[in-house]
Design brief:
Blueprint: E1 10-14, H1 18-29, E2 33-38, H2 41-47, E3 53-56, H3 62-67, E4 75-78, H4 84-97, E5 101-105, H5 109-117, E6 122-124, H6 126-137, E7 142-147, E8 152-157, H7 168-171, H8 173-177, E9 180-185, E10 192-193, E11 205-211, H9 212-219
Parallel strand pairs: 1-2, 1-4, 2-3, 4-5, 5-6
Antiparallel strand pairs: 7-8, 8-11, 9-10, 9-11
């Protein structure tokens, strides 16, 4: 039988600010069952008709979370962005409830370290991550940028002049720059995985993978 079990489809969202609401709405569109909890009655009313279940409650209170059945959720997201104390107390309560997979938004590096020390497995820094991504995009050639924890990244970019009109075997990109062109998207055509005989035109879009510093060097080519 395919698909996930019903239990793994359930996600708890603590906090309905912009980040939490966006996460909850996206998960809902993906078919996940979401319980969103926030103590602001206006936010609860705003999202009540758009998410699976929205409850007004204090997520820092472990007993309240227990009464809501939060311990049955395999995945929880702490998206509180207005108070470090509330974020940490909520995360600690979820750890105590034994939730297996906890994601938490951190406002600062010290905040993130506290979350890690109390047992949060996935600490994210949305603002910092977005800032780094924008910094890579403002140069003009990069169209999208995804960086991983180990210094590896995948980018969508316009082709440098030295690749235009040549096959990948002829341009020797990997040998010269240490990056790999994974795929090529030509106008009005489907995405294709790159082959040595793939010829690049000035209108193509490249999907390139490699170490971050090597990608930056390649993307800086005219």
């Amino acid at each position: 039988m395919g698909g996930r079990s019903p239990d793994t489809d359930n996600v708890l969202i603590c906090g309905l600010g912009r980040f939490g609401a966006s996460t909850a709405l996206t998960l809902t569109k993906m078919g996940r069952s979401v319980l969103a909890v926030d103590r602001d009655p206006h936010l609860v009313q705003q999202w009540a008709g758009r998410l699976t279940r929205v409850v007004e409650a204090d997520t820092t209170d472990a007993e309240v979370l227990e009464e809501l059945g939060c311990s049955e959720f395999p995945v929880a997201v702490v998206s509180i962005g207005t108070s470090v104390e509330s974020s940490v107390l909520t995360a600690a309560a979820l750890v105590d409830l034994g939730i297996g997979q906890i994601w938490a938004k951190a406002l600062t590096i010290p905040h993130g370290k506290i979350l890690e020390r109390i047992g949060v497995g996935h600490v994210i820094y949305p603002e910092a991550d977005a800032g780094r991504r924008v910094a890579h995009l403002v140069g003009g050639r990069l169209m999208d940028y995804i960086e991983f924890d180990d210094g590896f990244a995948i980018v969508k970019m316009r082709p440098p002049l030295e690749t235009q009109g040549f096959t990948l075997a002829e341009s020797h990109v990997r040998k010269k720059y240490g990056v790999t062109i994974v795929g090529v998207k030509s106008p009005y055509q489907d995405f294709t995985y790159a082959q040595p005989d793939t010829r690049v035109s000035q209108h193509d879009i490249l999907i390139v993978s490699g170490r971050t510093e090597l990608l930056e060097r390649f993307a800086a080519r005219p």
